[in-house]
């Protein structure tokens, strides 16, 4: 896939108000346009039409008469209306729909038939200029994310047989090794094989603080290498790397519509034909009852201009596209306008505990041995069993044993006990590692020295793991997953953004969950849950609060994320499954991005609402003005186009 294939669709697709049947050469010219605004084809043509309009007006002032003026006005209309008149004609004839361009084209024709050449030309010029500026703004807004591709280098230093040669970055394939020198950008997703350095991942995660990385760590396309030379092994082709996926996802999201936009488009399809019929009625009916035809024909022309819902149609798309594009550049992928709208309305957030509110890297903090055993023996036996397990608690035990220099004995006949622990034969003794509930089920005796410690450790936010036989517990390990340092700030930011209810969901025991929740100021805690329990609770929360955001890791919490009004997956950079599981994907492992997404949703929704109210107010003033005759063609055109541009400018504030 080349860079061109990642550009946004033709500007004519904006808000689906422009016909997709525009000639290919024109669409391609606008789609790939990257020059200054005054060279954008619709703006350029409107500007040339304006110059010719000025010449026609000057000819009149010089007394040259209609013989000179009218040909100049015809040329100005042809130039200024080249793009939008053709679109309106195609939509009216081929698709049999009355759009805004059709209303304006009929208004222009009506003014010409009434002999109002200057007014007709002024309408074409001003509408063409406004449409051109609007389309240019929308195109730049929707395609700004494409600029991320420029962060990835076009070439890479491929390593083959100990030699280095420059190759196009697009030719890299998984397994290729390439060299990245200090200060250079990384061509595609890869794993570090040699070297250590700090990597600036702002392009992918939105976090500007460099991350220290070494052999075995993943790096992403478009990120910038710091001080050390790195030998990398590619894990993705250029078109499938994380940066390219971000761009594709944002472009797709910007083309998806929210509820407000869909409603406005449905309204427009019914409203515009009514305006045209009303204008026709103003032309045909007044003479039948003895009223002056020219007066009401002029009002019909003014009505076509005044009642055209340009600002209303543009009230939502620009705000949504601006917000989604800006979020994508900051490492927050919002997968459609509907999700952005929902972010702006939801006032309850449910969090998974492990890996979301906590680091997801549990550590052994305390070891207590029963009489006759030592702490090192308890740790050694636990590590002997846990070496076969992939559970996060097992990794914590193994890490503790390694740090303490424990010699781990051999174990055999390993058996995982899902949701409870594990069993293995160490030496000739069958030992268990697991929750107190497991040993209670086994009927094992718990020495008083251990049982007295359980509640104290759980109240401190620890998970307690027993080690022993099916007859007696020999020791316990207290494991704690530390709270993320930014968690409290993130929750406070959410409160300031208008979130009122916080819920913590976890598979951990109730006392441990309560301890973590107390530190964070969360009152509603649901503990000892399985994945399907979380999904069921999220559905109930959505009904209770009228919607709920679920924040999790995107894989283990996939059922709950899918059940939520908005599912937010954290730390998804390079993880396809996590991105697919959620409505919003946070590329960085930063809980504060949740509040950023909520604020953005609130802002985009507020701006859209402002635009809708403003647009309706303009129509409420101009339509009666057109019908009563106190608004003329020139004033109607000026007010109409200014209101449209104000709606676009206000929408851009969502950035």
TrEMBL record:
Composition bias, Basic and acidic residues: 1-22
Domain P-type ATPase A: 151-251
Catalyzed chemical reaction(s): Cd(2+)(in) + ATP + H2O = Cd(2+)(out) + ADP + phosphate + H(+)
Keyword ATP-binding carried by entry: yes
Catalytic activity, EC: 7.2.2.21
Localization (cell): Cell membrane; Membrane
Membrane topology note: Multi-pass membrane protein
Keywords, in A-Z order: ATP-binding, Cadmium, Cell membrane, Membrane, Metal-binding, Nucleotide-binding, Translocase, Transmembrane, Transmembrane helix
Acidic residues bias spans: 23-33
Bilayer-spanning residue ranges: 67-85, 105-130, 271-289, 301-325, 612-638
Highest taxon in the source lineage: Bacteria
Region (Disordered): 1-35
Stated family: Belongs to the cation transport ATPase (P-type) (TC 3.A.3) family. Type IB subfamily.
The protein's name: Cd(2+)-exporting ATPase
